[in-house]
Write a structure and sequence with these properties.
The chain is an alpha+beta fold and 595 residues long. 17% of the residues lie in helices and 44% in strands.
Length: 595
């Protein structure tokens, strides 16, 4: 089993690369060698830059003649050398049937003899350390970084109407020296006068005005205006926001924000498919400004051969606090699984608060009335009250198609049955994900990892309602196995003397272990491919285990990348197929990445 996993994630990509490199389409550019006289560090940096350009430049990829490639890359090397202060460098290229050889003589590196700041004295003294000082090489990147340092300082400490920072480097080529001057263009200092918002039709103007965080008499700052525009857009009520600044009068300027409201109503219709559940249809309607302050009402219905639901939700952002929200929901659901049949009505409410940019905590309450029937058992009625407590850390760059960052989500959910005092338990789940992308590598590969564990404590497995136990298998768990097909099963005695006992349908467990690994490769702006490996299992008793007890599935997928989220098609195969239990493969079609 482990040998098969090793071959899948090490041997297959190597064989694929060897196959791809043998095809002219994938190996169109001639190989190159690069040597820099006397500077190995500069040589390695130039080589990395050329390799990155070969992966990203469509112009370079269009060349067929190696001499055209050499001429293009020779110009690139010259620009790169000048950006590091090598203004007297010489680059030679030698084209042969074996490829292109570049020989670089960098010459002396230009050093800075002096740095001057041409700006009012009161600002000059407050600027901190610049990234350059006399005696340093004339590095273009650090020169531009110096411009940003000055702009940031002036934006935070000055009331200038316009901040225009430029620089001039005077070269003394014979001496490999340069004088550097930063200049701030003259501009009047002003304060805010009247602040208005125009273009509103249904959004409460006082609500948006509070988001601006700008008051008459404040020091004028373009940075503050940009931040105010961003806060308007983040309300999800505005599609565009632009600021208009008046001409200065008596040391003040008026500011008008011209906004365009979004359409606040949306109707959705979606179709998905999985081998184990069949075709599913979703339909929904939402209003994102029901009371004029960004409150959202959403109604959604889902239906497939094994599950039907109707849910309504109210979301109130900025609930008493700017970084706090409130949500309330009601849901009718019906499930006909192999493990159980359940009908339920659920009412819930949650308050969430952002502690920082990446950290969120939540507390809530939920009341669930359900009728649950397991295989061969009588129907049971439950009235479960739960008080979920949650914490989430999220540093990812995209909610539906993350390429970098990580998440950690912990939920502790105590349950009490209002009708049965013995049905009291605590359900704990922890989910971790991580993403890393090689932007400078071919196909911009993303390595994605997901780990999930769960534990139910307080009562025995069969005393936990069947629809609250842990199950493994399916599109959001272990692809390649049917939904909820992994985990403990009971042994059913034979129907007649001498017969063979059989296994029941899955009964679920009080512990869960899951791990998924994906390699995502972006071929174009709209198409990408995925190799994945999933492992998981549910256990009758805690704790969760990550070892030989896991069931593994693997497969491939394609993604069509839309402006909203990727469309996903996965084909998965069970690596430990069980006779009379598992199919040869499973197919999943849905919206968004698997995790």
């Amino acid at each position: 089993m482990r040998l098969l996993i090793y071959i899948l994630f090490t041997g297959f990509p190597l064989l694929y690369l060897q196959w791809a490199q043998a095809i002219p389409f994938f190996d169109r550019l001639p190989r190159f060698e690069l040597r820099v006289e006397g500077d190995r560090q500069l040589q390695d940096w130039l080589r990395e830059q050329l390799e990155a350009q070969r992966n990203s430049s469509s112009v370079l990829q269009s060349y067929r003649d190696p001499r055209d490639v050499a001429r293009y890359e020779r110009g690139t090397l010259g620009k790169l050398l000048r950006s590091r202060g090598y203004y007297n460098a010489r680059v030679r290229d030698y084209v042969s049937s074996g490829g292109i050889d570049y020989l670089v003589a960098p010459g002396p590196q230009t050093l800075i003899t002096s740095i001057e700041l041409e700006m009012p004295q009161r600002y000059r003294e407050g600027i901190g350390n610049l990234p350059l000082s006399p005696g340093d090489p004339l590095d273009a990147g650090k020169v531009l970084e110096g411009v940003k340092v000055i702009e940031k300082y002036l934006g935070e400490h000055a009331c200038l109407l316009d901040i225009d920072v430029s620089y001039q480097a005077t070269l003394i080529r014979g001496e490999a020296r340069a004088r550097l001057v930063y200049r701030v263009a003259p501009s009047p200092e002003v304060r805010l006068g009247e602040v208005r918002i125009e273009g509103l039709t249904s959004v409460n103007p006082d609500f948006l005005r509070g988001k601006l965080q700008l008051e008459p008499g404040d020091c004028f700052s373009r940075r503050k205006l940009n931040a105010a525009q961003l806060r308007l857009l983040r309300t999800n009520l505005i599609s565009s926001a632009n600021s208009r600044v008046s001409a200065p009068y008596e040391g003040t300027v008026d500011v008008v924000f011209v906004v365009v409201e979004r359409r606040h109503r949306t109707v959705r219709l979606g179709v998905g498919y999985t081998s184990d559940e069949g075709v599913g249809v979703t339909a929904g309607w939402e209003h994102r400004n029901i009371f004029g302050r960004g409150e959202k009402v959403e109604v959604e219905s889902k239906a497939n051969p094994v599950q039907q639901s109707l849910q309504g939700q109210l979301l109130m952002p900025r609930f008493f606090r700017d970084r706090q929200s409130f949500s309330a929901s009601a849901e009718l659901s019906s499930e006909d699984r192999d493990a159980y049949q359940a009908d339920a009505f659920t009412l819930g409410a949650t308050v969430s608060r952002k502690l920082s940019k990446h950290r969120t905590v939540s507390v809530g309450g939920e009341l669930k009335f359900s009728q649950v029937q397991e295989q061969g058992e009588a129907t049971e009625d439950f009235s479960l009250l739960s008080l979920p407590l949650g914490f989430k850390l999220d540093t990812t760059d995209n909610l539906l198609d993350a390429r970098r960052g990580a998440t950690a989500a912990l939920e502790v959910r105590p349950y009490a049955d209002l009708g049965q005092s013995s049905t009291n338990f605590v359900k704990n789940t922890l989910a971790l994900t991580g993403y890393i992308t090689g932007n400078n590598l071919k196909f911009e590969p993303t390595l994605a990892l997901r780990i999930k564990a769960g534990v139910i404590s307080g009562i025995d497995t069969l005393d936990v309602p069947a629809d609250e136990r842990f199950y493994a298998g399916g599109g959001g768990s272990v692809r390649g196995y049917a939904y909820q097909s992994l985990g403990p099963r009971r042994l059913i005695p034979p129907a007649s003397p001498g017969g063979e006992p059989t296994l029941s349908d899955p009964i679920g467990g009080r512990a869960l272990s899951e791990i998924s690994l994906e390699g995502r490769f972006r071929f174009t702006d709209t198409w990408s491919g995925v190799l994945f490996l999933d492992g998981g299992n549910a256990y009758e008793d805690p704790p969760p285990r990550f070892g030989s007890s896991l069931f593994w599935g693997t497969g491939v997928g394609v993604r069509y990348i839309t402006s909203f989220a990727p469309l996903r098609l996965d084909i998965a195969f069970p690596l430990e197929k069980r006779d009379d239990l598992d199919d040869d493969f499973q197919v999943y079609v849905s919206l968004g990445q698997a995790f």
